[in-house]
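Quarterly update from the structural biology core.
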Amino acid sequence: MSGKPDLWRTPFRYFRWASHEKPAIFWSCVGASLGPISLAVVPPIRHRLGDPDREKIPLTYPSKFITYYVLLVSWAGLVSYGGFD
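Predicted structure, tokenized:
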């Protein structure tokens, strides 16, 4: 009688069994395990291929003067956006 193999005693046999009997679960676990590995492997490869780091996202809002000026200009109708006249 051939049953389900034990994961901790015969892991390779268990993985082979799971890949045939439960392929969706097996391959989703394989893909999920590649995520943390890619965090360590992909950035150095990206830098070697010439892909620069992205610009940092600003952590502050624009100044109040610029915000109020944009609101004033848009309310006063001094700027035509085209197509909305």
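The mean pLDDT is 80.
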